[in-house]
Design brief:
1 helix; 9 strands; four-stranded antiparallel beta sheet; mainly beta; Immunoglobulin-like
């Protein structure tokens, strides 16, 4: 540890002094037979040279940036071959109730199915209205007259062979 406080090398006690090169930090000690006891373990102090790199109080973590890319390596991070990844947007259901007209406007977006149904449920789960439909993906638009429907909260479900989306609407 005395070489870390050597004032000829640094003007202060600094663990990672840039000019510090000693055999103890440029080599690692190796135990060649770790399962053997005593001298049979074949311990060799400072026997593994780090190629000019240094180690401070443990194993080195000094990447060699001078290596450059390894041709044909799947681990080469200098070249990226990722093409644009398509963003898959989930299907959406937009609902709007116009109190003056007593109309429910239903808009489905990002739909993938071509056949489906549109259903209106009470909050207790009772089916109040159901309509089969054909869709031209990715959109669906429908307007329902809810003139005879009591005020309250209702559930609207749009189902196709590929997705199911739902939403709540408040009828005033």
């Amino acid at each position: 540890m005395s070489h870390f406080t050597d004032m000829n090398d640094c003007d202060f006690f600094y663990l990672y002094c840039d000019t510090t090169y000693y055999p103890e930090i440029m080599n690692l000690s190796v135990i060649h037979q770790p399962n053997e006891l005593g001298a049979l373990c074949d311990f060799r102090p400072y026997s593994f040279y780090l190629g000019g790199h240094r180690s401070y109080h443990g194993l080195p973590n000094n990447p060699n940036y001078e290596l450059g890319p390894l041709a044909g390596s799947v681990c080469d991070t200098l070249i990226t071959s990722v093409s644009q990844v398509p963003v898959l947007e989930p299907a959406q259901l937009k609902l709007f109730f116009h109190a003056g007209w007593r109309q429910l406007f239903v808009n489905g977006q990002q739909l993938k199915g071509k056949q489906g149904s549109l259903s209106l449920y009470s909050v207790t789960g009772q089916l109040l209205r159901r309509e089969e439909m054909s869709i031209q993906p990715p959109y669906y638009t429908r307007q329902w007259d809810l003139g005879g429907t009591a005020a309250g909260v209702y559930i609207v479900v749009l189902e196709t062979e590929k997705e199911r989306v739902s939403g709540r609407v408040v009828v005033e």
